[in-house]
Amino acid sequence: MTKTGPVRTAIFPVAGLGSRFLPATKATPKELLPVIDTPLIQYAIDEAKAAGIERLVFVSHPSKAAIERHVMDDAALRADLQARGKAGLAAALAETALRTPEDDVIFTFQHQPLGLGHAVLCARDHVLPGPAAVILPDDLILGEPGCLSEMIDVYATAGTGHLVATMEVAAQETGKYGILDTDTGTAAAQGRLFPARGMVEKPNPKDAPSRHAVVGRYVLDASIFDDLAAQAPGAGGEIQLTDAIAKGIDRVGLAGFAFSGTRFDCGSKAGMLRATLHLASQDPEYAEVLEDYGLAPRVAPAA
Known about the structure:
Elements: E1 9-13, E2 34-35, E3 38-39, H1 40-50, E4 55-60, H2 65-71, H3 75-83, H4 87-96, E5 104-109, H5 116-122, E6 132-135, E7 139-142, H6 147-158, E8 162-168, E9 178-182, H7 184-187, E10 193-201, E11 212-220, H8 224-229, H9 241-247, H10 249-252, E12 254-258, E13 262-265, H11 269-281, H12 287-292
């Protein structure tokens, strides 16, 4: 159960329709919905870049061209802002944008909604040799260092080919997640690393093998693509990433990693609100607004 090579590629599955946020996502991809003033996709990109990722592969849908427009540099827009005397804003856009050839960025398409596993498989031809990371942008994980940075650091010595981000959830919440069947005999000895012998997708809480829930960060052995290609569709005709990961456990190994950051499920309205309030509570600019709604004491403005 060994792995080889550095983690050089990050895959961003962004082809979903965002139906839980309709009508807001009728014309705006859910990945571009902002938390305060930063779109979810930007948090994910920043996390990947901070982790030293070389190639970013976006698996999108033809109807979501706005994602590429946001991700890539817009020199004409920056020039217009400069001409209007908004040099600071133009500089901020330049700092966050990706541009070729300096940045290794690829867009490819998932034309049919055939599941997360299928979306990852769509990136196969564009992944650099070695293991690959998968980032789900609507799982916002805030913290320093970033979740993916922590995972890649651990992956170098973990001794497993598949590493998944996990967090401990309440017993009654296990039915909402993929849950690791952890090897408790070794997990306690390895701190935040939890070797696993299996994974159960959304178990009945009374049957859950643990409370270690898998969330949207993965570092996967390159064999995942062969396993996905051979994976039969499951419920709803979708190819499940968790099924393909489970298939490779005996060959490459699996472990969960308890990241240090705070995770927000921004695939839900409640999660987006929590993330917004969390960031707002840390910024004196919004103290008065929060106080108006009884959410926090007023914070003195920064000097």
